Amino acid sequence: MPDAYPNVHALILAAGGSRRLGRPKQLLRWRGQTLLERAIGSAQEVLPGRVIVVLGAHAESIRAAIDLSSVETLQNPDWQDGLASSLRLGIKALPASAEAVLILLCDQPLIDSAHLAALLDAWRSESARIVASQYHLSCGVPALFPAAYFERLQTVTGDKGAKPLLIEFDACVLKIPCARAELDIDTRSDFERLTGQAFAEE
Question: Does the reported pTM lie above 0.90?
Answer without folding.
Answer: yes
